Amino acid sequence: MTDKDKEYEGESVDVGKRLRALREERGVSMRALARRSGLSANALSMIERSLTSPSVSTLIKLSIALEVPITAFFRPEPDRSPVVFRKSYQRSKVVFKNGRWEGLGGENFSGRVEAFMLTLEKGGSSGPYGMVHSGHEFVYCEDGTLEYEVEGQIYLLEPGDNLIFAAHMLHRWRNPGEKTARVIVVISSFEAFENPSEFHLASGATGSDEQEEVE
Question: Is the pTM of this model over 0.70?
């Protein structure tokens, strides 16, 4: 294995540990999570102590109860820094159906700003459902066309166009054109416990035939 290959190796994530961290970040007790999810406190304790592995259906229940995307259970909490420099080949990448998500360093930044790039082939979209999260969202279209729907209003972005809106408004996106679209999204001023790019990542991966994460 070359050094370059090692750079792209994914990390093994302890789902139980991530569940406990997500629960405690939100100030939710084990009993309260059991009520919200419909799972027993004993089952939750077994998962958090890594004594059992949760099924996909269980993770869906937990993601709904904690109001986080299901991908939040599989992404390790990164080291954060007040300064982040990222070479293009070092980007975190997730490939989903008709598209690719690339982190631009915000996932390692200690401030409340996240930036990522979306590359969307024809038909690439965030899925049939909209998303909401805290903060403000800035979208810049570099290439192709992107249709952004915010609270039922559709905005068509072409190269050089941009959009800014309050992210608590229901929104979703798709590439309506024949050409591959490339856009940069910056999310700022979100709540400390949120990782807002996760919502876009989870939505884009919805219904994917193949998903590959590269760290």
Answer: no
